[in-house]
Amino acid sequence: MDLKVDLDWDDEEVVSGVHYLDTVFLFNRMTEGTQSMVAPRKGEWILDIGCGKAADALQLAECGGKVAGLDPSGRMLREAKDYLTKCDSAVALVRGIGEALPFKKHSLDKVVCKGALDHFPDPQRSIKEMSQVLKPEGEAVIAIANFESLSCRFGRASHSIIKKFIKGDHPRTPWEIPLDHTYKFDYPMIIGLVERHFEVKKILPISLLWTTPYWGKIISIPPRRISQTILVFLDMIARRVPSLSDVIIIKGTPRCD
Ligand SMILES: C[S@@+](CC[C@H](N)C(=O)[O-])C[C@H]1O[C@@H](n2cnc3c(N)ncnc32)[C@H](O)[C@@H]1O
Predict the structure, then answer these.
(1) Burial letters for 83-117: b for 16+ Cβ neighbours within 10 Å, e otherwise?
(2) Tens digits of residue pLDDT in 65-77
(3) 55-62 and 21-38 helices cross at what angle (nearest 10)?
(4) Which residue of 101, 122, 127, 156 lies most exposed, with the fewest beta carbons within 10 A?
(5) Is 97 in the pocket of ligand 1 (CB under 6 A)?
């Protein structure tokens, strides 16, 4: 298989810098939402694809799952190993890619892939692989950032106006596709890819306005309790307008056909 994968991917670029409340809220909701959709049961075989530091994999193992984390990046797997040695629950680490899962057909109860599919050279092939390694009644949970969210649309529009008036170099913005991403996902695209191999059982859209220009600074002004209430309220609105939400979480079972 001839796929270009970064074998030394590093999350430093993604997680460094100032984290305003909206970012902290989004990351936490994404983790909570994904974990609650996976809802691990004791003894279930679960694979976290694109596991990074394996923080999610560990949480799933702590709930009783027999968990493996898969990632192609040697750097991330080393960090995961260091992280896991400090913890009690066991997570098996596997070096590999989502497009060629080294697991037997129908051997797993659940697979999860959080914030990673837009780094894969061939997301469609990976989704097909997920459907094949899962037991017929198994479940896949995929969480992905929506680059057609309300904030991305607004950010791009306002930025293009600014560029017209202010000439010169402009720094990269959060609404442009990050350089380490292979695909730009939006709501219809992710649903379309998943539906080819899965029956969609649940969709959980998460958060609204993340990375809107100045939003992080504005939402950090009121007392924390009020900011949190606003963010929770926006999260509730996101559920009604999935195509504008910041992140989409989907759960599905493999198609029988
Ligand atoms: C943004 S990180 C997400 C890590 C983790 N799931 C989380 O939520 O913290 C994306 C991960 O996908 C991994 N990745 C990139 N291409 C991949 C592929 N083809 N198959 C599996 N994982 C891949 C990267 O090495 C990286 O660890």
Answers:
(1) bbeeeeeebebbeebbbebebeeeebbbbbbbbbb
(2) 999 999 999 999 9
(3) 40
(4) 156
(5) yes
**Tokens 């009020």 correspond to what residue?**
226
Six-digit token string for 223: 């007392």
CB of 52 shorter than 6 A to ligand 1: yes
Burial 170-197 (b: 16+ CB within 10 A, else e): eeeebbbeeeeebbebbbebbbebbeeb
Residue 13 CA to residue 6 CA, distance in Å, equals 14
> What is the full DSSP assignment across 207-236?
-SSTT-TTHHHHHTSS-HHHHHHHHHHHHH
Residue 76 Cβ < 6 Å to ligand 1: yes
Residue 214 has φ and ψ, to the nearest 5°, of 70, -5
pTM of the prediction? Answer: 0.92
Which atom belonging to ligand 1 lies closest to the Cα atom of 48? Answer: 6
Using alpha carbons, list the distances in angstroms from residue 25 to 19, 112, 208, 235. Answer: 10, 21, 11, 10
- Can you give the pLDDT at residue 2? 67
* E runs forming strands in the chain: 45-49, 66-71, 91-95, 108-114, 134-145, 198-206, 247-254
Lowest average pLDDT, out of 98-107, 152-161, 217-226, goes to 152-161
* Any atom of ligand 1 within 6 Å of the Cβ of 59: no
Tokens of 28: 């936490």
Residue 172: its pLDDT value, please?
Answer: 66
Quick check: 142 pLDDT over 90? Answer: yes
List the domains of the chain with CATH numbers.
12-254 (3.40.50.150)
pLDDT for the residue numbered 177: 77
